[in-house]
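User: What would this chain look like folded?
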Amino acid sequence: MEEIIQSDVENEMQTSYISYAMSVIVGRALPDARDGLKPAQRRILFSMYKLNNTHDQPTKKSAKIIGHVIGTYHPHGDAAAYEVLVRMAQPFSMNYTLVEGQGNMGSIDGDPPAAQRYTEVRLSKIAEEVIADLEKQSVPFVPNFDNTEEEPLLLPTRIPNLLINGASGIAVGVATNILPHNLSEISEAVIAYIKNRDITPQELLQYVQGPDFPTGGTVFYNNALVSSYITGRGSVTIRGKIKFEKIKNKNAIIITEIPYTVNKATMVENIATLVRDKTIQGISGLRDESGKEGIRVVVELKQDADTDVMLNMLYKHTQLEISLPVMNIAVIGNNLVTLNLRQFIKIFVDHRIDVIRKRSEFDLKIATDRLHIVEGLLVAVMDIENVITTIKASKDVREARETLTKNYQISEKQASAILDMKLSRLTSLEIGSLEKEKVELTGTITDLSGILADESKIYGIISEETARIEGKYGRERRTTIDHNAPEKDLDREDLIIDAETSVILTSNNYIKRIPTNVYRSQDRGGKGVIAIQLKEGDFVKEIISCRLKDYLLIISSKGRAYWLKAYLVPEEGRYGGGKATVNLIKLSEGEKVANIINTKEFSSSFLVFITSKGKIKRIRAEKFSRPRANGIKAIPINESDELADVCLCDGKSELFIVTKMGKALRFKESDIRPMSRIAHGVRGIRLNPNDKVI
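Assistant: Here's the prediction, encoded as structure tokens.
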């Protein structure tokens, strides 16, 4: 009978899930911090190396590569492996493609690649810098999934692949999103680190301007981006690049670059949907003219559309502007690490130190073994007559080897090399080449021993290799860095055209705005046109002209002042009746709007308040120039009183007060001294009982 092991299900699930999570994290989703590759990428590159599928050889069918990968190293689905292979060949996905593809490898529009039986691939030139020195036992190897082969635990890469190509992936409970960068800038940062290994992430930013995406675009250099380099976490805001053109006497926005990871076809479709839904108004035409010359999406504008406002609308509502999170999380061994810029570079340099040391040890052993053989051959050629006699006198090879070893105090390896030597090597020219080779090998051994004994020489080699790679593969950055980042995201006001408008207020507290272009100039005797549909008993109390982005000062009957942007007043046609003001500002029960004033005219002006009971007060208008969300007290008013009116004056006006019973008073504005907001005012007119100011 089988033994049954009792186990707590909670503990078992926890243990099993942790094992599963670590398997996904280490084995599939996250890159190694040293070579910057995920396991699938590393296995594909190694398979192509094993199949001699290098950049100087003809391309091979993708199906052959994928078959070798999943059959030998990567026990997963062929579709997933092919997707990884294709991505490494897409110039819009990777800054420096590691695979050269032939055939349809997908597009920036999201078109899928052709089936793997149709496409062909080979390693790119720069990919061979990733696998260089692999044959020199420079990295550890581990058994493959069925213990029939060995595969590298990581690749000896000479390029800082994780920083220049970036990486993204979602594992179990953790995700990574590392931005790609410019090889030239990262190379300079690596060399700067080698010169000063105490350099800080902030100091490294002198060399690294910011991310450099394969699709170009513009990046805002802000605190969130800097944080990603200092702490390993942050975000980046990317905008596509545009230019303005005139097409058939109309303005057009031409999109020439799009943000990284954005699907161009989806973005264009999204713009079209927003135009159809009237979320974006002002676009008259949209077409994608992209081709071999690059991206060109044409957004034609209507005749009266403001180009800046339309551009802001595209940034606000479409993927022409996106924000990507930055999470610099990678794997070292079985550990997760969050890396700042300095740590990225340190890990890469430390990896290169390890690779160069192992490479040098391998080369030293090869050189030492060869020198040993050459020394034996030189012993033989110096006494070749006796050597030949000894060999001819021997019964067999074993006896000849033993005799040579004994007579000339050489090793068995040297004796075997003498026995294997061709007679053509006995010429004086060949003897000279052996002596020359001995000198060269001695120098090589001295150099390699010096490298292994002095770490500063290893740092020097890394600097030289990095400079060589920069010179060979470096290019100008594609992404523009904008140091004038907006302090805030685009808000509604950025999307408003600051057009002229009229705001109408009625005595029953209905308010609306109407574009001034609905009115037309009329000659004398014209009847005019209707501006608002009034309810019975209602009349227009105030009508002002302003612009949509102007602040309106709204004074209530209880003496409170409120601010409201003109564009927030509902726009209606000439026959609209307006909306109740209580829907726009927080009025208390029984409180009404006394008047509305355009604050744009506040310069050197005064506000004059008059209450129903004849109290009057003058105050400098500039005291109301700072908007507050909940309003402020403009004039204290008794419960039995209310504000009758308020008007804007220039300090030299003459005022006219009229009462309900027909009394009137005229006087100069300057007769009233300016007061503070908390002042109650002074008596402006003496009223009879039951009379009031209107």
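Residues 492-683 form a domain with the Neuraminidase fold (CATH 2.120.10.90). If you want, I can go into more detail on any region.
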